Amino acid sequence: MNARFSRRDFLKASIAAGVAIKVSFLLPSARAQLIETPPLPGPDWLKADGKPRYRLDAIAKVTGQKTFSRDYRASDLPGWPKEQSHAFLIHATKADQVFEGIDLNVLGDDLKPDRVLLHEDLMADGIVIPVLGFYGDVFLVPKGQTARLLGQPVALLIYRDFARYDAAKRMVRFNDSVVRYGEKAPYSHPANYGAARYVRIGGSDPSDEDVYSPLKDAVIYGGFSDNEPTWPAAGEGDPMALGMAAAEEIKKEIDSAGDDALVLRRNYFSQSIDASAMEADNGNVWYDSSAGTLHAMIATQSPYEVAEVSAILVSKSKFPLKNVDLKVGYTVGYGTKDHAILPFYCVVAGLYGDGRPVRLANDRYEQFQLGLKRHAFWMDNALVIDRATGKFRAMTGHFKNDGGGRANYSFSVAMVGATAAQSIYYLPKSDFSAAALASRAVDAGSTRGYGTLQSMSATEMMVDEAADLLGMDAIDLRLKNVFKSGMKNSQGAIPAGALRNEEILLKARQHPLWIQRAEKKASFDAANPGKKYGVGFGHVQKDYGTGAEAALATIEFDAKGRIRLAHVAHEIGTGATTSQAIMVGDILGRVPDETEYGKVLWPQMPLESTDEPYTLSQSDEDQRKQNPRWTPRITSPMSATNSVYYLGHATREAARALVELSIWPAAQSLWSRGIGGGALAPYSVRSDELRLVNSIVNAGGMPSLSIADVAAEAHRLGLITGVTVHTFNRWQWTEAEFDIPGVGHRKMAIDAIALKYGDGAPPDKKALMTLDGWQFLNRTAVSYPPVQRNNAGVTYYAPMATFAEVVVDIGSGEVALLSHHTITECGTQVVPELVSGQIQGGIAMGVGHALKEYLPLYEDGPGDGTWNWNRYELPRARDVAVWSQTAEVLPPLSSTDAPKGLAEVVMIAIVPAIANGIAHAIGKRFYELPITPEKIREALT
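Below the sequence we write its predicted structure tokens.
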């Protein structure tokens, strides 16, 4: 989340190659319908209060019109050839033997592929891996070398017809004779991906200046000796040396702690899992050599990135390229389709289609073998607690994750896991380190939770055990150490807004599940011989955002008051298309009549960026921002938690700008008609009294106006009737100043704006709209959050507390979840039903992580190609207490509270809650996930 790769080189390469990039989201076609821009919902879509009865895409979903990228073939795509070719990959299942080639004799003459591609073919044609390191160093294993990771492809086979493709794919699956291996050889996975350390020593009081912290001083970066991280020497002067001196001080304090302190040291393990998105990775690519255009239909959470990287992949090859036209549809991935490698295998396949589109789509075996995984984590924790007060004195955590054979986001995930480890607690002193290891395992990426599920679950299990050892109520111990508003996190940053964990804990302490747990356990255990009852509690707070969140949004209205919204957000299952529309309605008094989502082409916003929001130096950024069209990042990939707050910020800023620049002055004009200043003159009405509800405009006792009347007046006056904004957040919002024609100087929480004027605007104003009917307005000043702000790691949090009521069968070791109750806080709920859905779905995922889901990392893991849901156990409705779950969401502190990104935190607290509930039930604690029946039976033996 903090450490991202620099894309400067390949962006320069794409520009030098003269490649035009187009990303589009399909409109209905003759044979299929892809609805990133949804059809109009039914007439009953909105309730009287303007809130939705159902999702914007609900009718399409229930009537079978909602399609995913996977559903498309060439014949469904306008302008594409109707003939469809198909491809599949052959994978290496051994990483310690030299690859010598493939043997396709098993296919016979009838099933031989029309084209076989090996590494040497790609090299000869100038095709190289894009973003070297991040995606590895080769697409296909070279002959005479070992695979970098288990399951790495060695060959790509293309068929011109489906029947032969399907039969051949079935023939080679599980056939050990197809890939030929030679002699034993050392593993060839990359070097380890990175090590970082966050050390903080606070002042004598939480409000005092830190003695040392990453935000104030530096994040410490290390190297490796084998798989052990190495760190700079402690010393004076250099910030990292000072940080290591602070780390040594913390270690000495822990090692020398006396009897007045509890020193708890524990090691934890969290397993590798498959996110099991129902849509496996897929793509369909047509290379039109005559036009030099690469057409692609690909499932991805990061479409802009896929288009750019595809251009680089092709730009130095023998295939002439002028345009990349990427089409994207509905998808779902829980992070596994964010910067995954399969889209680029799809591009490679398409280049060799001989003018025909080529479809490459994982089946479930291949998705287990090639899809991104959640990282396995090893955590070595120590916690020091004052016995008399129950106050935490210090905490350390030294973490390692296994990123497999491609770097992807492994180092970033490790760092975020470390920065999250403090969870909901204030720590006067802390030392958290992260090491991302490379191995022959399948590569892992930005899967939902992003390292925090692993580290915070361990912290919560540790705090619960500490309470037992101290003889304290576990919630009381949490209350003594809860992180409060204005305190600093382990990076030395003060989080945004109000932190309401104390309020949640006080509410939890009074819940019947907690108050009655001892009594219920005694009665249940007595009445059910062979079974043990327990209640566990977990409470975490999850950061949301990346430290480089950028978005674009347009809102405009015509002279009849019809509102149009266009946005970069696209739907990955979170309900973004619904929530963005509702946000517009909350501010403008009616939802948009027309929406366009997933928009990437913005001719009215001629922004420039090398997209280095993390790696550009402060001096370079200061120089670049003198260009009024420069921005650190154009747009962000879609993730589970960035739509409602970060992408929604662009929506809200555009809507508010329209209110100020158009709706308010147009309403004033209407109210001022008549002699003596009309109905407005006798009153003193301010803009903050303006209310827009149910398509009606009111303010301070003025006559009600319809949106249509106000819009007509705005157009008549030639006011601003359309606004496009660009936003950027680096753990705080960028602000810029603009001189707006006819309005004056304005400072806004955006960094770029484009304007559209109404029908009645004078010719000189209309002449300014030279960019597709818009005027791009150069800013007069801009304040980007300093690059050093990245050391904050995070500043935005959403909390979640969960009770788990469990029963353990001491004979079988089976754990039954009787019920669970959650308490959360997410600011203003834009669409409460979407929040409820996130809670229910997230908890089910957390139950799977706690009790069921597990992937071996190496030779017996998914890289061998034999894993499917017959071996990988997912939770079902009977496992997640689907009919006995309850949840409560704290009301916002005011009607102006911003919404918070909730979608990741919902799956975390249930994990330690279950672990702590099992400990309450049987008196045994577990330090490795998942907690399986076998582990329980062993513990009870």
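The longest strand covers residues 531-543.
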